[in-house]
Amino acid sequence: MGPHTGVTPSKDVKAVACGRGGGRGEARMRSCSDGNIYTRRPVGVRSTSSSSSLVLSNPKSVLKRPVSTEELQEPGGPYIKKTFTIVGDAVGWGFVVRGNKPCHIQAVEPQGPAALAGMKVRQFVVSVNGLNVLDLDYRTVSYLILTGPRTVVMEVMEETEK
């Protein structure tokens, strides 16, 4: 995931405070309950404030094709279930959830808690802390994660290699 550039004049710069607060001094990708990705824009880059701000980037879906909840649950189908236990750090868990019935992993921060646990993009979220979320939208799933414990247990479905 390279730097997010090309904020067009029609897009607003949106500064937000989210996650578990604080950082380690380096710019880190952030995700909030609205499911968008925010990156820190350095001072001197055109922005609505005079200091460093967070800039909204709404990337295109990483999915190769739409997938239904029925397809994910089909016995003998091309998906395998994996379980991850992710301990959030001072910034968050290091991944972005997107989509609707089912949600998927849109982005994983390299070297973040989710990546270290083995999470990858294009995995479909089955459950969060034991609650089945296949029929929920990404905003609801994000809310469950953000308002739950610091350690989140997630079951996902991943497409098998062909």
Number of helices: 3
Distance between the termini: 25 Å
Contiguous low-pLDDT stretches (5 residues minimum) are 1-56
Shape: globular
Let me know the largest β-sheet.
4 strands, antiparallel
Helix-strand string: EEEHEEEHEEHE
Rg of Cα set: 16 Å
Helical amount: 10-25%
Instruction: Provide the spatial order of strands within the biggest beta sheet.
Output: 4-9-7-8
**What is the average per-residue confidence, as pLDDT, rounded to a whole number?**
75
**SS-derived structural category:** alpha+beta
How much of the residues is beta strand, in percent? 25-35%
Total DSSP E strands: 9
Notable traits:
3-stranded antiparallel sheet; 12% helix; disordered N terminus; 30% strand; 162 residues; alpha+beta
Provide a short characterization of the protein structure.
The chain is an alpha+beta fold and 162 residues long. It has helices at residues 69-73, 113-117, 138-147; strands at 30-31, 37-41, 53-57, 79-87, 95-99, 103-108, 124-128, 131-132, 151-159.
